[in-house]
Amino acid sequence: RAHVHPKHLVTIENGINVDRYAKASAARRVELVPGYTDGDVVIVMVAAFRSPKDQDCAIRAMSELPENYKLCLVGDGVRRTEIEALVASLGLQHRVRMPGIRSDVPQILKAADVNVLASHFEGLSLSSVEGMAAGRPFVASDVDGLREVVQGNGILFAEGNHRQLAEILLRLINNRDEYEKVARACADAATNYDIALMVERYHQVYNELCQERR
Q: Which of 24, 25, 46, 114 has the fewest Cβ atoms within 10 angstroms?
């Protein structure tokens, strides 16, 4: 930025195939959470089990919520044993499931009542875009990389504040108007990160450079 003319600086954000998430068929909830019943509220978090992510916050939030709130943590990694120990110490084995790495993430996100991403920091979080594209309310930590995507669309909570997260989840499920409003805003925002737009922007930059060299 200090040495290159501003006209030569172009930001092109990464994108996803939005339709793959928006039009996915929902996975069977009974396969996602332990002892699922029709009255259960399913919370999904898709993230690697490593230090930048904060599965701990999502797990602790469960201890503040009614018994019918269930958590599905999709992913795997070096912190899995540590996370399993936390679940056991809080007596939440009957409410938290960790199905590992899955190839049907769009279907899982679609099966959730609310999608969550608790994290300590992110880059441009494509996981948040995927969660929003599923057409469910998206709730995320108020940290760099998530704030830019989620703010004004989904709902942010203070980093590591599991009680605030629990309050947000409870409010969304008990207020259908807010639930639908946030879900629509998330779905609309996700379209700004469609991979077709990313490709179009690369083409635009390429064509502009070609014209400058003629």
A: 25
In angstroms, the first-to-last Cα distance of the chain is 26
> What order do you get walking across the sheet with 69-74 strand by strand?
96-100, 69-74, 41-46, 114-117, 138-141, 155-157
Quick one: the chain helix, strand, coil %, rounded to 5? 45, 15, 40
Report how far residue 88's alpha carbon sits from residue 93's, in angstroms, rounded to the nearest whole number: 6
Nearest CA-CA partner of 180 in 214, 134, 120, 137: 137
Helices 176-190, 126-133: inter-axial angle, 10-degree rounding: 120
CA atoms within 13 A on the CB side of 113: 21
- Summarised one tens digit per residue, pLDDT across range 84-136 is 999 999 999 999 999 999 999 999 999 999 999 999 998 777 889 999 999 99
Task: Report the b/e string of 130-151 with b at 16+ CB within 10 A.
Answer: bbbbbbbbbbbbebebbbebbe
Q: Are 160 and 152 in contact (CB under 8 A)?
A: no
Q: Does the reported pTM lie above 0.70?
A: yes
